[in-house]
Amino acid sequence: MSVPVTIYTTPTCPYCTRAKQLLTNKGVDFTEISMYDVSSEDRQALAQKTNNYRTVPQIFIGERFIGGSDDLAKLERENQLDALLAG
User: Fold this and answer.
1) pLDDT beyond 90 at 2
2) Which end of the chain has the lower number of beta carbons within 10 A, N or C?
3) Which H or E run includes 71?
4) Among candidate residues 21, 5, 25, the one with its CA nearest the CA of residue 13
5) Which helix H or strand E contains 17, and what residues bound it?
6) 5 forms bridges with which residues in the sheet?
7) What DSSP assignment string belongs to 36-63?
8) Of the candidates 7, 62, 14, which has an alpha carbon nearest to the alpha carbon of residue 35?
9) For residue 32, what are the β-bridge partners?
């Protein structure tokens, strides 16, 4: 069983595109949520979960906030991403 992946994005963000492409290339299903569709209350809750991380993408593997595109790529380079995805 794989851990659910959620990625918060904006439509024109190249880093969002890069992160989604990495996940797609690995065959990982993910839920994409546009920041434009997130209410003010949900943004506040998200800010608490991410320690006020302000940029996109904001990537969660399960309940764990892993950061953005560069953080995802680093996990992949260091051969740690598959273990996180596997749970």
Assistant:
1) no
2) N
3) helix 69-77
4) 21
5) helix 14-25
6) 61
7) GG--HHHHHHHHHHTTS--SS-EEEETT
8) 7
9) 7
The model's pLDDT over 8-56, given as tens digits with 9 standing for 90+, comes to: 999 999 999 999 999 999 999 999 999 999 999 999 999 999 999 989 9
Q: What is the pTM of this model?
A: 0.94
Encoded tokens for 78 = 């260091």
Contact 5, 30 (CB under 8 A): yes
Residue 1: pLDDT above 70? no
DSSP label of 6: E
Residue 56 is which amino acid? V
Q: For residues 17 and 26, what is the distance between their CA atoms, to the nearest angstrom?
A: 14
Using CA atoms, how far apart are residues 39 and 4, in angstroms rounded to an integer? 22
